[in-house]
Amino acid sequence: MAGFTRSLGQKTRVQAKLAALREGLNLALCRGLVPLDVEIDSQIATDIVLNDYIPIDHPLASLVFYCKQLLVQYPRTNLRHIFREANLSADILAKNGGQALSSSPFLFMRVHLPL
Questions:
Q1: pTM for the model
Q2: Closest CA to 50 of 38, 58, 59
């Protein structure tokens, strides 16, 4: 399992989830991490990205289109909603990443989960 944490500035919850998806997909592409299982703990963000149609004048359209363009570059990518309580990677990053962000604007972690 891999994840990252960094400050994205002030955004709405959905904007933050979509911006994090964009950043995570870019990071995975640069590191050659395929295939991907992407879990987002926002049902709205997941639905927007998986929806076949989003109006061009939607306030999140450019961010959604960018995410969709990145997703098509990954063969065998699975994107799904996960409940916040079950989002173990976010929990681990929140616990371990907070201290590191004071010295670095970006933190990437690979974690081996206990079986």
A1: 0.74
A2: 38
Instruction: Find the length of the chain.
Output: 115
Work out the burial of residue 49: count CB atoms within 10 Å of its CB; fewer than 13 is exposed, 13-18 middle, 19 or more buried: buried
For 64, the token pair is 């959604």
d(Cα 65, Cα 31) in Å, to the nearest integer?
22
Mean pLDDT of 52-79: 89
Which is nearest to 2 in space by CA: 79, 88, 68? 88
Position of tokens 């670095």?
A: 104
CA–CA separation, 64 and 60 (whole Å): 6
Chain centroid offset of residue 29 CA: 13
Q: Which two tokens stand for residue 23?
A: 């950043």
